[in-house]
Amino acid sequence: MTDDGPTDPTPAPPSRLRAVLPDLAPWHASADFRKLWLAGLISSFGSFLTFVALPVQIKELTGSAAAVGAIGAVELVPLVVFGLYGGALADALDKRKLILWTEAGQALLSAVLLVNALLPSPAVWPLYAVAALSSALVSVQRPALDALWPRIVAHEHLPAAGSLNALRWQVGGVAGPALAGVVVAYAGLGWAYGTDLLTFVASVLLTLGIAPSPASHAAAKPSLKAIAEGARYAWSRKELLGTYVIDIAAMLFAMPLAVLPFLADELNAPWSLGLMYAAVPAGAMLVSLTSGWTSRVHRHGRVVVLSAALWGVAIAAAGVTRDVWLVLLFLTLGGAADMVSGIFRGVMWNQTIPDELRGRLAGIELLSYSVGPQLGQTYVGGIAAWKGVRTSVWSGGLLCVGAVGLLALCLPKLMAYDARTNEHAVRLREQRAAAAAAAPAPTPAES
Asked: 88, 223 in Cβ contact below 8 A?
């Protein structure tokens, strides 16, 4: 039965559930986004298996917390060098090709770990060598990935895409470490490394189906001059600079992952190691699964600062408590806070950086969210060897809170950032709207 009276043209407001659940608009609108998302999900699952297996193997071979923390030290130099140069390459070359070649390289490194694990007496030095080479490949790949997302996703869908990308990482981050604890304990390290190898092969096959993404006409050739140009632009944008240093401080002081194998032993709960590694991404996943609210937030800088401080509080609490279940709870809460910070840092980057500079700025972004954790592993491992595991965790959390508070006072532009009025966000939004209006309508086959 129909109503012949006047209809109300105003669309019904979204339900409360839809307002909280992730926005799937990027998934529906872009086939390339779907393929790249699935490729990343598969490879991240395997990578997290190795993420747990590698420090466990070094612990078994050396028995030293400092040796485990040294993983961060060997990853640092290639991260810095190749992160900056990788950003320049991402601006100057086809981004899809860079992603493909680096994924293939990661597969080869997983094969090396597998062969070494199967030896009667595995050597320690290949573990550090693979960690360094893998860091170099990730440093080349991540700027290309970060620069590619805004090309395959509409401007207004970028916050939703950021949440979905985070969710992809978190699914692997929860399932990978949780499974790794069981696989390493009962099947052996070789199974973890072998699975990682297979996931990289699958990721390469999916990425082959993505459209090429050549360099922008205005992009500079990879050179020290081009890298310096990107650095000058980043320095001129104090709100962007703030997102970098806030994250570095948080990860430098409060990244306890390197000592989790020792913390699990100290709590007489070696069975909990996989859960500890999974707790941080599990908290992040909870945020991503309820991320519908993120598109309605505009003061991104303030949220970045608050969530970074809450990360430090959670890590300090995890170091103080002696109950393993409370440790898992606080690690989960810390992961949730870090995810909120990551979402809004990514939105600020993607909605304000010009296309021709995006690769180089992505290289700087890579340093901001990677150098901190790498140095943090070395820091927490050294403090654990000096003052004890639990002290290294709770003291790092408190230092994180203090550093974030001090930086917030020194960065008024970060605290004042508003996506609705920021000149860079407004300019890029207008440019993308004009480009969309000038583009020809897609044919039925293309859509």
From this structure: yes
Closest alpha carbon to 259 in 94, 390, 123, 418: 390
Answer for the pair 330, 318: CB distance below 8 angstroms, yes or no: yes
Distance CA 156, CA 23 (A): 11
Question: SS3 helix, strand, coil % of the chain, rounded to 5?
Answer: 80, 0, 20
- Phi/psi of residue 218, each to 5°? -90, 0
38 CB neighbour count, 10 Å cutoff = 15
Length of the chain: 447
The DSSP result for 195-216, as a single string, is HHHHHHHHHHHHHTTSPP-PPP
| Residue 431: closest CA among 234, 214, 439 | 439
The region that residue 82 occupies, defined by phi over 0 for left and psi between -120 and 50 for alpha, beta otherwise, is: alpha
Question: In the chain, how long is the greatest CA-to-CA distance?
Answer: 82
Give, for all 447 residues of the chain, the pLDDT tens digit.
444 444 444 444 455 656 667 778 888 888 999 999 999 889 888 888 888 889 889 988 998 878 887 887 888 888 888 888 888 888 888 899 999 999 999 999 999 999 999 999 999 999 999 999 998 998 899 888 888 888 888 877 877 887 788 788 777 777 777 777 778 777 888 898 998 999 999 999 999 999 888 877 666 677 788 888 888 999 999 999 999 999 999 999 998 988 888 899 899 998 888 789 889 888 988 888 888 788 788 899 999 999 999 999 999 999 999 999 999 999 999 999 999 999 899 889 888 988 888 888 888 877 777 778 878 877 888 888 888 899 999 999 999 999 999 999 999 999 999 998 999 988 888 887 887 777 665 554 444
Query: How far apart are the C-alpha atoms of 364 and 358, rounded to whole Å?
Result: 10
| 269-272 contacts, C-beta under 8 A, 24 or more apart | 269/324, 271/181, 272/324, 272/327, 272/328
